[in-house]
Amino acid sequence: MKYMLLMYGAEDCWSEDERTECMLESMSIRDGLAVQGKCIASSPLYSVTAATCVRVRNGQRQITDGPYAETTEQLGGYYIIDVGDRDEAIEIASKLPPAMKGTVEIRPLLSLPDSLSLPEGDASQRPPSDAEKPKDYILLMYAEEGAWPPEEHAPALAESVDLCHQLHANGQFVSAAPLQSPETATCVRIRNGSRAVVDGPFPETKEQLGGYFLIRVANLDEAIAIAARIPGSLRGTAEIRPLFPLPSSRQNKFGGD
């Protein structure tokens, strides 16, 4: 079973030394999971001050700076894991340093129907621009629960998968996946050595995370242009966050490479 682990926390709760240590410990855990074949991708994200939100309404793009969800704890990174069940995902989440001061939200990925298949991520085949070094961005798709009726959700999903294949052909695709309903979410926190496991999503907002695209493009403008083409932007919000660069000794292991 594939799960996405979303790391939420207040950005001012870590000193710079603590943040560095947290990142190194998290990546060490990731290394161990990778050896076991249980980790698909992982990356920290830049501060929410670097976020850009894209919505498309009546054919017009609305672009705003800042994160989608204005909460005290913001998304700081993610893991995508492939494990036996939810209990194993909880055990992994409990070991991650962000659970000590923040929250790890566990969301199962939604299996695509047999008629749809995502491309294999390989954005290294062709750089998007000779003038600029490619940058990795994650596009987080938020929408209200029920925004897409079942008869409209399937065509929108198929259109999103088709877009992934177009991005792959352009050398811009790394990975993507829809998530199961927020009702399937599990939140894990560690406080004073005790673990708290709570059902339901972390941010209690009207619009919840429904999926993600991980892309490799020349700059933010290209990321915005892609976000505006995703059907989810028509009824929800695409939050664009740049991935935080890892040390050169690790950068080929994380972020979907």
Automatic annotation (TrEMBL):
PANTHER family with a match to the protein in the record: BLL7171 PROTEIN (PTHR35174:SF3), BLL7171 PROTEIN-RELATED (PTHR35174)
Homology family: Belongs to the YciI family.
Protein name per Swiss-Prot or TrEMBL: YCII-related domain protein
Limits of the YCII-related domain: 1-110, 137-245
